Amino acid sequence: MSSQLIELGQQALATISCSVAGGASLVKCQLLASEFYEALRQELKEPSLGASAKRAALIAAAKQCQQIARASISPDAMLGELKQVVHLLNVESPAWEPVSADPRSRPMLRVIEGGLSKS
Questions:
Q1: What is the DSSP string of 64-75?
Q2: What is the DSSP letter of 63?
Q3: What is the pLDDT of residues 21-79, one digit of tens each?
Q4: Interhelix angle for 26-44 vs 3-21, to 10°?
Q5: Fewer CB near the last or first residue (10 Å), C or N of the chain?
Q6: Which residues contact 83 (CB under 8 A, 6 or more apart)?
């Protein structure tokens, strides 16, 4: 993630937070967030990202931004969604990143003796 994108997201969050506090309409808040969303989409188009964890985080953030664009969302809910998007971009290693499993902790299947297992 570029630091410019994160900074733009934080600026949008601050601006929209003030606007929501002042009673701004949903459309105005969405318009204020649009520059950040466009920058996010541009960064997703960068070929240097490949199939990295950063790209996966950007995709997740873009999907979350789609919630912001709904007409049925309230300005407060939109602000909450935007906070989550900015937080997602700030996280160094996303929580959804796969963790290597310890082979010793794998479950073992065993036959329980008794009942129908004996012939």
A1: HHHHHT-TT--H
A2: H
A3: 999 888 898 888 888 888 888 888 877 766 677 778 888 888 888 878 777 888 888 88
A4: 170
A5: C
A6: 13
Tokens 């969303």 -> residue: 37
Which ranges of 45-109 would DSSP assign to H, the alpha helix? 53-68, 75-90
Q: What is the CA radius of gyration of the chain?
A: 22
- Whole-angstrom distance, CA of residue 55 vs CA of residue 47: 10
- Count the neighbouring beta carbons within 10 Å of the beta carbon of residue 31: 13
Residue where the block lists tokens 């049925």: 72
**Arithmetic mean of pLDDT, 8-16:** 91
Say what the pTM is.
Answer: 0.65
